[in-house]
Amino acid sequence: MNQDILQKLTETLEARKQASPESSYVARLYTKGEDAILKKIGEEATELILASKEGDKSHLVYETADLWFHCMVLLAKHGLNVGDVLNELARREGVSGMAEKESRNKDRA
Predict the structure, then answer these.
(1) Yes or no: is domain 8-108 CATH 2.60.40.420?
(2) Residue 105's pLDDT band (boundaries 50, 70, 90)?
(3) Total-model pTM
(4) In the prediction, which pLDDT does 43 show?
């Protein structure tokens, strides 16, 4: 059941691209552009860090959901979705974190 929420949310975020900014928070973010979305992600990341430092597990979950949501908005803005991220995580499964990071550094050189 909970896995379905990612698909439903992906569909909703895509639909909001056509919604009025007056009627939809996500449509408003899309209209404001990438900088507004990135600013929101930064705010949510900071709130997540603070929640973690507080040690309140329910607050930590709440802030993680906010961060994930806004990351999904950014992905949708770029024509991507959570499936793309899950595919990347699957690709990395069983690969040493150090080896994966090294391969990314080689790709950038």
Answers:
(1) no
(2) low
(3) 0.84
(4) 98
